[in-house]
Design goal:
Chain A is an alpha/beta fold and 337 residues long. Chain A contains 12 helices and 13 strands. Chain A has 2 domains: 243 residues, Rossmann fold; 73 residues, Alpha-Beta Plaits, CATH 3.30.70. In chain A, the strands form 3 sheets. A 6-stranded mixed β-sheet of chain A has the order 5-6-7-3-8-9, with helices on both faces. In chain A, strand 11 and strand 12 form a beta hairpin. Chain B is elongated and about 60 Å long. Chain C is mainly alpha-helical. Chain C has one domain. Classes of the chains: A alpha/beta (337), B mainly alpha (272), C mainly alpha (266). Chains in contact: A-B, A-C, B-C. Chains B and C meet through helix 1 and helix 7 of B and helix 2 and helix 10 of C.
Chain lengths: 337, 272, 266
């Protein structure tokens, strides 16, 4: 559905020098600063996929999305969306895509939402029967009737996001781009939005590409993620693979009956590992013993047996590393093989 | 040619970008305003060229050239509009805030306008003024203006400024009745351009209208200082003109206070 | 043909929505209309006063100048009415990234820009223009025959296109400069020169407003065709050629600009 082929985008700005002398110097210099916001990125996305496109601020996420939607023309490389080059055939591409940019609305600010939909129906040339069918679905999934007759500027952020999502889907786009779709929303609303996105994807096989800082969005929605940093693609694969590769830490927490015995317990010795491979913490107030370790080095049952041999255990919890931590790790240190 | 264009265009555009971010826009606006003065200049040249008389409306062709540019200089220094600030404050409701502060709202606006006036005097006006004098001496063969006239002109200008600002304050009060002050501003500017003498010397109006204008503050805003600059008034007439300006300052000050009192009373009643 | 119909329909839909949002205040509407009406009337009053002192201005009578003045208002008003949103492109829409939304819709971008807004204030200019032209017709100042009447409408249309082209060209610079409002302002204000016969200006000015920023072709030059019997109809022909030429240049620059558009937030 989408083929991005060695795409790059440069932004050129005049070089600035500090101070008054700098300003004068700037007059006689034609030096320019080239900032490569997106640097030679390639990927393909199939029909019906939901792909999370993530990276820190200024990593080039929005720039890539803007190239795929036809807003920006790539400096080098090419992309095809449903077989169309968005920058060369902007109008045809626009008919194929739906876009929601979390920060700004596409709707007519002063008009009732219903009027915005009427205009969009005309703009995208949606036939009456298609319109009725779509609206029936959108009304159910996004609960639009609650505020359909209210001017857009009076809507709450959550309502506006639902409205924007509805507006982007009215013409049954093949690809849906979502830029920070849940930003600033509370948990319940976030959940509803995510559910709606999933339903749309299932029912219409809409390909969805979303950028987000919210790891919850990714865990709930995306089967695949692409991570970009400083304009370069640094990871492209399934969420599970990422977790397998980088989320190898396990954390076992146990509530213990006889805290006094803990001091004598030396887990590293029993398990036969080095100190840095197994992190042990004890919370005296809660009587909680937390053991963090690499799952490839030590098995969970080994830890449990070792502890239960020494003390009586009331309760056990096993946690995987949070995705948020993995992503944070990758941003900080890049991908290590 | 093409190569040097390619090399130098970025210079120009970069510098323009930088300038625009700061004062650049302001200078372009001055240029735009100057268009009006140049159109008038050419128009008057043609008018004098088409006339069989050497003096029109009491001015010779050369005096008219000075008049065109000096009326432009004068009005650019004098007409510092505060009406839009007033209407902004009214719309945003900051006027009510100003009521509880221990400062006089109008005085604070006038002080701001004074700063603006000095800036405009220093930046474009003095240069154009000097240009006019050089042109006068070199091309028109007229004597350079005397120090005495300059001083009188500046005094008259300061009074013109006060008349304008006090008038504009009253005008800004319209914002209490309609929020769309843009249309009103346009009417005001057009009307002032005409009645202050900026577009055409008052002496071109029919006698009857000139008598009516004697009882309006507008001719005191631009026409009077420019005529003083040209040395058209002397002795008693000069004294009378300056006194008339002073009287308008007092009258408009009083009118402004009155309207302000009425309007703020309404504001208090409404609880704005 | 089909596309044309669709765009007309879209235009109606978009403009209707816009009018709904502004028609809430009739006072504002009247005020704006009257503002433009009044500021143009002042220009006529100026001419009237001057002509109290002279019989003619370089061979032009007051009635003739009034026709030129009024005729100039009509293309100006038409352009002002329909394409006022171009100003926003020069000042804001490119700078703050709002231009994104035009890029995302399956419609011609220029069409979207102008369909977003109508400027009813322009009716003030159209009103002045029409009154003055009708006055000239009744006074018999202008030549009236089939050819002139037909070319009158052609000329008005071409004149409005020249206005739009000049505005579009300077607004399009915003794609590279981010803000081009001040340049547009300077260029647009040049149109004031064209309200009077261009013969009164120095050679350089005349060249500038005839061939570089061709406002002379909007008003004075075509107006002289209607005023003087025996003036060649080629004048209107040249006006049309110029308007089409400038439109093509402006549109090409605008189109290239949309590809150079950098959006906001980088």
């Amino acid at each position: 559905m989408i083929k991005v082929d060695h795409i790059s985008k440069d932004f050129i700005s005049p070089k600035k020098y500090p101070g008054l002398r700098g300003a004068v110097k700037g007059l006689f210099s034609s030096e320019k600063v080239v900032k490569t916001a997106v640097d030679d990125i390639s990927f393909t996305i199939d029909t019906g996929e939901i792909v999370g496109y993530i990276g820190s601020n200024g990593a080039g996420k929005s720039t890539t999305i803007k190239m795929m939607t036809g807003i920006l023309t790539p400096t080098r490389g090419e992309c095809l969306v449903a077989g169309i080059d968005p920058s060369r055939h902007r109008k045809e591409n626009a008919q194929n895509i739906g876009v929601v940019f979390g920060q700004r609305t596409q709707l007519w600010w002063d008009l009732p939402l219903s009027e915005s939909f009427t205009i969009l129906k005309e703009i995208y040339n949606v036939s009456d029967e298609n319109y009725a069918e779509r609206m029936e679905f959108l009304n159910r999934v996004l609960e639009l009737p609650d505020f359909f007759d209210r001017p857009v500027r009076t809507l709450s952020l959550g309502q506006r996001m639902r409205a924007d999502l509805g507006a982007a889907l009215l013409h049954n786009p093949k690809v849906l781009y979502l830029d920070e779709p849940t930003i600033g929303l509370d948990l319940v609303v976030k959940d509803n939005i995510r559910k709606a996105i999933r339903e749309i994807n299932e029912k219409y096989q809409t390909t969805v590409i979303l950028t987000t800082h919210d790891i919850g969005d990714i865990e709930e929605l995306c089967s695949r993620i692409i991570i970009i940093d400083e304009g370069k693609k640094i990871y492209d694969g399934s969420l599970n693979d990422l977790k397998d590769k980088y989320g190898t830490k396990r954390k076992v927490s146990m509530e213990i009956k006889q805290p006094e015995k803990i001091k004598k317990l030396s887990l590293t010795e029993i398990l036969g590992v080095k100190k840095e491979e197994c992190d042990v913490e004890f919370d005296k107030e809660k009587n909680m013993l937390c053991v963090t370790f690499d799952k490839h080095k030590i098995q969970v049952p080994q830890v449990l047996t070792a502890v239960m041999d020494a003390v009586e255990v009331k309760d056990v919890q096993i946690q995987e590393t949070e995705l948020a931590e993995i992503v944070k790790e990758i941003y900080n240190h890049g991908v290590t093989a | 040619m093409r190569k040097s264009l390619r090399v130098y265009l970025p210079f120009a555009s970069n510098e323009l970008k930088r300038q625009l971010a700061y004062k650049g826009a302001f200078y372009l606006f001055i240029l735009v305003n100057m268009f009006g003065a140049f159109i008038n200049y050419y128009l008057w040249m043609a008018i004098y060229g088409s006339s069989d008389q050497a003096i029109l409306g009491g001015l010779t062709r050369n005096e008219m050239i000075v008049y065109v540019f000096m009326s432009y200089v004068t009005s650019s220094v004098v007409s510092i509009s505060i009406a839009s600030t007033v209407s902004d404050d009214v719309v945003k409701g900051t006027v009510a805030m100003n009521l509880i502060k221990p400062i006089d709202y109008r005085l604070s606006l006038i002080s701001q306008a004074v700063g603006n006036m000095i800036y405009r005097f220093l930046v474009p006006a003095v240069f154009i003024w000097t240009g006019v004098e050089i042109y006068k001496a070199r091309a028109l063969g007229l004597p350079i203006v005397s120090i005495w006239n300059i001083l009188l002109y500046l005094l008259s200008c300061i009074m013109s400024f006060l008349i304008y600002v006090l008038f504009d304050f009253c005008f800004g009060m319209i914002a209490f009745f309609t929020t769309y002050i843009f249309g009103m501003q346009m009417i005001k500017n057009a009307l002032l351009g005409f009645l202050t003498g900026q577009l055409i010397p008052i002496s071109f109006f029919p006698e009857v209208m000139q008598r009516v204008f004697d009882f309006l503050p507008f001719s005191s805003m631009v026409y009077t200082p420019v005529m003083i600059y040209l040395g058209k008034y002397s002795g008693e007439k000069l004294g009378f003109m300056l006194c008339r300006q002073a009287v308008w300052i007092i009258l408009l000050y009083g009118a402004g206070s009155l309207i302000w009192k009425k309007v703020t009373k309404k504001l208090v009643v409404l609880g704005g | 043909m089909h596309t044309c119909k669709r765009y007309l329909r879209l235009y109606r839909v978009l403009v209707t929505q816009f009018l709904k949002t502004i028609m809430q205040s009739k006072v504002d509407f009247l005020m704006g209309l009257f503002g433009f009406f009044f500021s143009q009337i002042i220009g006529i009053a100026f001419l009237y006063l001057v002509f109290q002192k002279i019989p003619s201005l370089q061979g032009w009578t007051l009635d003739q100048l009034i026709f030129i003045y009024g005729f100039a208002q009509i293309p100006r008003g038409i352009d002002h009415l329909f394409t006022d949103n171009i100003w926003m492109v020069a000042w804001r829409i490119v700078l703050n990234g709002d231009f994104d939304r035009y890029m995302l819709r399956p419609m011609n971008i220029f069409f979207q820009v102008i369909a977003e807004k109508l400027q009813p204030d322009a009716l003030g200019e159209l009103l002045v223009g029409t009154i003055l032209v009708v006055r000239s017709l009744m006074k018999g100042v202008v030549v009236i025959d089939g050819q002139h009447i037909a070319l009158f409408f052609v000329s008005i249309f071409a004149g409005a296109l020249i206005y739009t082209s000049i505005k579009l060209f300077f607004a399009a610079l915003a794609f590279w400069l981010k803000i081009s409002g001040p340049f547009l302002q300077v260029a647009y204000q040049m149109s004031d020169f064209a309200k009077y016969p261009t013969e009164i200006y120095a050679k350089g000015v005349r060249f500038l407003i005839t061939w570089v920023i061709p406002f002379a072709f909007v008003a004075y030059l075509p107006a002289s065709f209607f005023l003087k019997e025996g003036t060649s109809a080629w004048m209107i022909g040249i006006e049309c050629v110029i308007s089409i030429l400038f439109w093509c240049i402006a549109y090409a620059v605008f189109d290239r600009g949309t590809h150079a558009y950098e959006s906001a937030g980088n």
